[in-house]
Write the structure tokens for this entry.
Amino acid sequence: CPGVAVNVSTLFPSGSNVYREKVLQPSGLLILSRDITEKFSLGANFGYGWLSNGGQRFSQWVASVSGQFKLNPKTSAFVEYIGLLPGGPGNPNASYFDTGILYLLSDAIQLDARIGKGTSGASPDDFVGFGISYRWKKIG
């Protein structure tokens, strides 16, 4: 059965003045998934953010497609391709490839770690990230 979720979030202006923006950066994401086999699923995300870079506001659309492989009942690995339209204020579109691990602490809490690389001249940056997700309510 397909999975559908909506993620609404914002980045808060926190951290060192050198690295932070001074305004909230809200975004929304439609998350879709479909189990193909018991151990493999496909996913897609489509979203919009009203972001800031260097104090300049800009609109950014995002789309991604991913494959997730269940390694055991609590651990999965994934690969993902991401497109950002635009890559930043006044910048061309950017694209990235990343891979990582997801770990379920419980039915409601998931940890993740990822590493990625830009795949276009507009997105030369490498990145590493860590996250935590909480599922508020399961429907069905």
